[in-house]
Amino acid sequence: MRRRFVSSLVLLAAFVAGGSAPLRTGAWFVDCDADLYCAAATIAAENDAKIGIRIGRQATGSWQVSFVPGSFDLDPAQTLALSIDGGPKVSFHPGEDFLAYGTDRPEFHLTDVTLAERILRGMEKGQRMDLMLAASDGSSHVFSASLKGFASALSHIEEAQKRPAGERQVAAPQGLPVHPSMAGATPLADGGKGPRGIPARVYEQHVRQSACEALDSAGLKDAAIVAGRLDARSRLFGIPCTNSGGRVTYRLYRIETGEIGGVETLYFALFLPDFGWAGTDLLENVSFDETTGTLTMRAGRDSGGGCASKAVHRWQGWRFALQDYRIDTACKGGPAESWRQVYREETK
After folding, report:
1. Which residue, of 107, 113, 149, 192, is most buried by count of CB atoms within 10 Å of its CB?
2. What pLDDT digit, counting tens, does each position of 202-221 carry?
3. Of the spans 80-94, 166-180, 277-291, which averages the highest pLDDT?
4. Are 206 and 220 in contact (CB under 8 A)?
């Protein structure tokens, strides 16, 4: 595969596929070489600094999402983030979610295929992409690129390669050496800080697996983050997911605080009067008492006619154990102690 790099709009054509004069569609240039390696490219800019962005694939391969910082002095040891149309920032961690390849100037590829595919699909529908990078002097920078014409550029590649429309699988490069600047790169255990003080790893898992509202949406921007220490090795984070009439649902995560920094989504028991017990990863209106390790859920009456409920869980070494579960079967309100008790932990 021919690799060329860009430092200005004048050189953008050389950053595509290296074939004939590239086609321009909106803010993007697209071209294919003789072997049907095709790529679309554009420029992301911050004042006078420019970064080349490339989306390309071989005739029978998966997409690759990459960028070249040009003269920008990027710190490859720091987390980078991407955002479409000002939406949630999706973070990529060095050595795990992105890597630099090449022997001369590095080209940085997104290697977490789940996140990269999400970005790629978002680019098709979006108007602007922001790339948030850290410089070697510690300063933060935001490079913006227009997505006008990007969807058309992908369609042109699909037609040229005679491949089905809509295939958006992403893969890391094969056969290219890792650039010396990122040889042996290791990410921070918790991924650094994400939105509203949430560890980036926790936030990214939340973004990957859920269709929750954005944290800065009108419904969730004032909803509290639930957080506390579970034990010497882990912490709890509850991230708001939805808000309906003041009823805020949360998805809860446990993150290890040691060198591994693993993240686990927590699941809980849910009692449905008409069906019995079920499992859920969403709890409503939760609070956590770090001193006692007690997690309390209090759900309001739902639109399906279900009455209020309250559940109390206690952290016990490696999981939350259900201690008490009550339902206001009469829908009359009042103290939870007067409600029907559907579960009580047996005392030994």
Report:
1. 107
2. 888 888 776 788 888 888 98
3. 277-291
4. no
- Tell me how many domains the chain contains: 2
Task: Calculate the CA 218 to chain-centre distance.
Answer: 20
Considering only CA atoms, which of 75, 97, 77, 66 is closest in space to residue 4?
Answer: 66
- pLDDT value for 199: 83
Asked if residue 214 and residue 153 are part of one domain, the reply reads no
pLDDT in tens, 58-71: 999 999 999 998 88
d(CA 5, CA 107): 8
Whole-angstrom Cα distance, residue 21 to residue 14?
9
The answer to whether residue 240 is domain-embedded is yes
Report the SS3 class of residue 77. Answer: coil
As a whole number of Å, the CA-based R_g of the chain is: 24
284 and 321 in contact (C-beta within 8 Å)? no
Q: Is residue 109 part of a domain?
A: yes
DSSP class of 213: P
pLDDT at 8 over 80: no
Strand partners, 229: 235
Relative to beta strand 247-256, strand 268-272 is unpaired
By C-alpha distance, which of 153, 158, 146, 155 is closest to 60? Answer: 158
**Which residues does 274 contact at the CB level (< 8 Å), separation at least 6?**
none
Question: Does residue 172 share a domain with residue 40?
Answer: yes
Tokens 């898992």 — which residue? 205
DSSP string over 42-110: EEEEETTEEEEEEEEE-TTS-BEEEEE-TTS-B-TTS-EEEEETT-PPEEE-BTTTEEEE-SSS-EEEE
* Residue 48's CATH number: 2.60.40.1880
Q: Which amino acid, residue 191?
A: G
Decide if 121 contacts 147 (C-beta within 8 A).
no
